[in-house]
Amino acid sequence: MSAPARLRFFRTADAPRIAGELFRECFKADFPVPREGALPIPTPPENWRQFVGVYTWPDGREEAVAFCNWIKYGDAYIGGGMCSRESVYRRLPREEFRAIREQGGLAQMIQAHAWTELTDCKAWFGYCGDGKAMAVDLRFGYVPTRHPHLIVRWRDNATPDDALVDAVAAIGPF
Question: Are strands 76-84 and 123-127 parallel, antiparallel or unpaired?
């Protein structure tokens, strides 16, 4: 089943304006604005990839319903800030709710969209301590590493690389 026509996922440099309120609602924290020094590794703004999901209601009003951030780091992307607006599910038309649920939900759908675009890497990494987010990530194909909370999803033809896992683990929480 395809995504509802009124639901769009896209990469944007305007993510703070579009999804800032959603991020603050979910994390009670400031939005991750692309900048150098965000982590103990190089994080120049050009290495940031921010994706949002926007739903357009029948009256034309647009609402940010999902967000996730990836930062290019060597042969990997490190992802964080994945969130979705849970309250939207009960407001959707039944058919659209079913279509989204059948695809794993908004958080899984935004990852699936970004996965098709962010292909210039060996793997994606996440640092996940939340059980609900972990369930989404595991459904999407991430696997645990030997480092607590660090998960990885290898690209289709990539050979698992312990040195890359260890380099990402050395960053600490992200």
Answer: parallel
Report yes or no on whether pTM surpasses 0.85: yes
Distance CA 161, CA 126 (A): 15
Closest CA to 72 of 97, 42, 92: 42
Q: Phi first, then psi: what are they for 138, rounded to 5°?
A: -65, -40
Contact predicate 106/127, CB 8 Å? no
C-alpha 75/C-alpha 24 separation (Å) is: 30
Q: Is the Cβ–Cβ distance between 53 and 7 less than 8 Å? A: yes
pLDDT in tens, 57-93: 999 999 999 999 999 999 999 999 999 999 999 999 9
Distance between CA atoms of 150 and 142, rounded to whole angstroms? Answer: 10
Domain-by-domain residue ranges, the chain? Answer: 7-122
Radius of gyration (C-alpha) of the chain in whole angstroms: 16
7-122 in CATH: which number?
3.40.630
